[in-house]
Specification:
The chain has 317 residues and is mainly alpha-helical. The chain contains 9 helices and 5 strands, in the order ββαβββαααααααα. β1 and β2 form a beta hairpin.
Length: 317
Amino acid sequence: MDDQGCPRCKTTKYRNPSLKLLVNICGHSLCESCVDLLFIKGSGACPECGTALRRSNFRLQLFEDPYIEKEVDIRKKILRDFNKKEDDFNSLNEYNDYLEMIETIVFNLANNIDVEETRKMIDQYKKENKEQISKGRAKMSKDEEYLEMLIGQEKQDSEIRRQIEEEDEKRHKNIKLKNKEALIDELMFSDMSAKDIIAIHKHDQEKEDIEIESSLPQQPATQFSTGIRLGAQNAFLPVPDEKIEIYKYSPIHVDLCGPELQEEEQLISLGYMRNVRATSDSEKAGGFDTKFSCQRALQDAFCGLFYFPVAPQMDQS
């Protein structure tokens, strides 16, 4: 696709990387400067199609193609009213027809095809399904509330975990500080040698560190199941030292219940290749050879030729 740019002032993102393109209901994009200039009074006409637009309806263009932006906006508005689910229909065919009608409406509005008739059909649908539309919106709002509740609960849980971790870290820092002060006091006033005091203190410190590690909450995973650490620059593991048995190919034996397949020399000498067309250059480049088709035809013809089914024995009792 060509470089994105404003169709009015011809500014492109190549010349101005910080260029912001805005789009409205008509689907034509304008840069932020042109929007401020043309819609200084709050409303105006689109310089591309002449559609009356409001300044407040402009939004940031997310897709490179403004047509996609227009179609997405139309689809969102249509699906607010056409919100029936598969459970609302008696058969799958009726539901598929309903989806096809929605796609036709979106296509017509996005491509300006029979716009008036399409809008009349939408208004007629709203009048006939007013109660169903309100029920569908209420159901959607309940689902959204449930999702928001889950997100809020997750945020609350993460905040509680963060507070617990901060309190534990603060408590452990205070313990280390007290231990350090106790070590200094013992070195100053104890009758024991400094070496013994440090050894005892080191032993006590190791025990406290083990208790602290056991009391801390489980840390999140730092590596994948393959052993690669999360965020590691080198994504390859070292080659293991253990010896791995090298794979040896053993051809598969298939009992064709018929004569053995002929080799290429025998196919030529016995005249099987006379009625097979020659391989073209493009087929040879793909790895195909005439003998493959000939051997396949012979295999299909002779397969099962020596097969004699055994009749089931009748029960004499």
